[in-house]
Amino acid sequence: MPTRHALIDIPVDGVHIAGTLVAASTMVPGVLLVHGWDGSQQQDIALAHELAALGCICLTFDLRGHARHVAQREAVTREDNLRDVLAAYDTLVGHPAVDPAAVAVIGSSYGGYLAAVLTSLRPVRWLGLRVPAIYRDENWESPKRRLNGDDLALYRQTAIEPEKNRALAACEDFFGDVLIVESENDVIVPHPVIENYLAAFKFARSLSHRVMEGVDHAMSKKAWRQAYVQIVVAWMTEMRLAAKAEEKARPKQQAQRYEAWPSANV
After folding, report:
1. Which of 56-65, 80-89, 123-132, 243-252 is the least confident region?
2. pLDDT of 257 above 50
3. Smallest Cα–Cα separation from 57: which of 82, 38, 32?
4. In what helix (H) or strand (E) does residue 4 lie, and over which residues does it extend?
5. C-alpha span between 171 and 184 (Å, rounded)
6. CA-CA distances (angstroms) from residue 251 to 27, 29, 254, 255?
7. Is the pLDDT reported for residue 62 higher than 90?
8. What is the DSSP letter of 164?
9. What are the E-state strand segments in 85-186?
């Protein structure tokens, strides 16, 4: 097995001694999980452990306006939370064992919306969206809390062209693999929103759509949450197998050989 090494400093008693960290050079996929509004990273921990068991490195985190930073709830904007997602992505990809060409981002509701926008700013190979929310582009810097209301509910019942919505435009430009999970009894993200997302992924390498029958937006029953975990695990397993098959089928690059070098005497 090929290996890699890095020179490090080890602090001890006020000085640093030199060391060399040696590890297998094999890199693994990274998975970033983005929770929804009113949620927290705790909702993604079970899924993260299942995906880690597949050989992935997973990162969950709390968006500002939630958990430790709940005091910012009334003021936090979509721009703030998008910057949270970008920072979390960069942290994940910065892990020495994560393959930057094999990153999955999985988001729920508001987190799905942010995950879609993220694909226009960072490389993503696999994108999983559970009940992805959608918002008008206007008032991007306004507190997210103020975006909800009757107008938003009406907007989510309409057909939206990708060029008129930042998240859908990012989806139209996405060339990776996509999973969209819909809840049949979702009154917050109704079916027209899912139709808009499905229609936007015109150039995706693959597009899988799962409808969870009888399930509400928040997956309020434990059995529903467990079923969702199995959907994502099955999809990621399929994606990893396809990626390995693709890598195996790709011709190995051979060094170019020359029988004679061009003469310097022309």
Report:
1. 243-252
2. no
3. 32
4. strand 3-12
5. 22
6. 20, 22, 9, 12
7. yes
8. G
9. 98-108, 126-130, 177-183
Q: What is the mean pLDDT of residues 30-43?
A: 93
Q: What CATH number does the domain located at 27-240 have?
A: 3.40.50.1820
The one-character DSSP state at 27 is: -
H runs (alpha helix) in 35-109? 45-53, 78-93
Q: Tokens in use for 116?
A: 């879609």
DSSP state string for 207-262? EEEEEETT--TT--SHHHHHHHHHHHHHHHHHHHHHHHHHHHHSPPP-----SSPP
Alpha-carbon gap, residue 93 to 107, rounded angstroms: 17
Query: In this structure, what token pair is assigned to residue 104?
Result: 């999955």
Among 1-5, 42-46, 255-259, the range scoring the smallest mean pLDDT is: 255-259
Global pTM reads 0.85
Amino acid at 256: Q
End-to-end CA distance of the chain: 47
